[in-house]
């Protein structure tokens, strides 16, 4: 547990302040990620810690200098918008005037890295020195908790992502496909698989080198990550083979989307190698739950069989698994 005593003003009711700061710290440390539950806890605790104040939390993107308004709180018990605490997935564009409008602003920094900015204003009178001390102490706690959650999220992403393409990896596929099939079994909804393989990739790799081959894999990964729905799960299955899980999608719809992907790959241009890309194509197999299998391995096997049939028929095409 953090030692909160240096953060507390000796002139205030230190016992009550320590209790409130401990409640804030414990509540936030119990959150697994920066999601709606985290922001809800933060709103409740800040309303108790700093009565008669309103404020906002701004966070920087980890990979750039852009800053977003991710959360706000209002005076406890006061009328407000239906949901004053905005989730990270609904972040609002940053405007520096928003920060400047607060009576007190505190940068959130951890180990020299800028994390965000916390701002607050007392409704009515100006913030007391005790309230300012509490606010700065809470900001220090918040910096530590947010930094830890961001690190955890980064490590989780590294575990489930393919480092070359940015797609989900085979390990994650094994977890998520079983879950999607169980969900489909409960709801009666279909779930489909697309398996795609780059045609003649080994010959291409041997001729132009592995660096060029990696550029092709990255480009295809980027295309698939952008092409499919947020609900879909595009994975690098191994080597030059890709597998996309399509929840709540039947065989016909999956085949249509696979045809679109084949067409997009044919038109794909890669910087520095546009003259070599005319022959880049993929072959695709499609299968669906429950008609082609009721467990993950059977479904994958049927989609893979359809993929090899597409290869035998001349490549650069989509084949649906037979019934």
CATH topology of the largest domain: Beta-Lactamase
Q: Which stretches are low in confidence, meaning pLDDT under 50 for 5 or more residues running?
A: 7-12, 77-94
Count of DSSP H/I helices: 9
Q: Tell me, what is the CATH class of the largest domain?
A: Alpha Beta
Query: What would you say the CATH architecture of the largest domain is?
Result: 2-Layer Sandwich
Number of strands: 10
Gross geometry: elongated
Biggest beta sheet summary:
5 strands, antiparallel
Mean pLDDT: 85
The ordered H/E elements are HHEEEHEEHHEHHEEHEHE
Task: Please indicate the percent range of residues in DSSP E strands (runs of 2 or more).
Answer: 15-25%
Number of domains: 2
State the strand order across the main sheet.
3-2-1-5-4
Please compute the radius of gyration using only Cα atoms. Answer: 26 Å
How would you describe this protein?
The chain is α+β, with helices and mostly antiparallel strands and 323 residues long. The protein has 2 domains: 153 residues, Beta-Lactamase (2-Layer Sandwich); 151 residues, Alpha-Beta Plaits. The strands form 2 sheets. It has a 5-stranded antiparallel beta sheet with strand order 3-2-1-5-4. A 5-stranded mixed beta sheet has the order 7-8-6-9-10, sandwiched between helices. 45% of the residues lie in helices and 20% in strands. It is built from 9 helices and 10 strands. Helix 1 runs parallel beside helix 4.
């Amino acid at each position: 547990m953090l030692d909160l005593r240096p953060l507390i003003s000796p002139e205030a009711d230190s016992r009550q302040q320590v209790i409130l700061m401990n409640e804030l710290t414990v509540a936030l440390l119990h959150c697994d990620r920066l999601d709606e539950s985290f922001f809800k806890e933060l709103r409740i605790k800040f309303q108790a810690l700093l009565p008669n104040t309103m404020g906002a939390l701004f966070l920087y993107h980890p990979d750039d200098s852009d800053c977003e308004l991710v959360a706000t709180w209002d005076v406890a018990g006061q009328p407000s918008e239906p949901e004053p605490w905005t989730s990270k997935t609904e972040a609002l564009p940053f405007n520096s005037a928003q920060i400047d409008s607060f009576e007190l602003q505190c940068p959130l920094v951890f180990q020299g890295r800028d994390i965000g900015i916390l701002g607050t204003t007392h409704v009515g009178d100006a913030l007391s020195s005790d309230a300012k001390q509490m606010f700065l102490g809470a900001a220090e706690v918040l910096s530590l908790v947010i930094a830890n959650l961001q690190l955890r999220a980064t490590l989780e992403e590294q575990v489930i992502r393919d480092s070359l393409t940015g797609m989900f990896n085979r390990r994650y596929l094994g977890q998520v496909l079983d879950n999607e099939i169980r969900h489909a079994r409960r709801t009666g909804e279909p779930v489909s698989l697309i398996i795609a393989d780059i045609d003649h990739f080994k010959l291409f790799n041997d001729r132009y080198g592995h660096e060029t081959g990696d550029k092709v894999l990255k480009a295809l990964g980027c295309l698939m990550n952008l092409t499919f729905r947020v609900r879909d799960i595009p994975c690098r299955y191994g080597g030059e083979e890709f597998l996309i899980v399509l929840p709540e999608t039947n065989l016909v719809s999956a085949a249509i989307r696979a045809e679109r992907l084949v067409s997009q790959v044919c038109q794909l241009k890669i910087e520095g190698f546009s003259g070599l890309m005319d022959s880049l194509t993929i072959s695709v197999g499609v299968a669906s739950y429950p008609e082609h299998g009721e467990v993950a391995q059977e479904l994958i096997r049927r989609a893979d069989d359809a993929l090899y049939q597409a290869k035998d028929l001349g490549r650069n095409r989509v084949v649906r698994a037979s019934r």
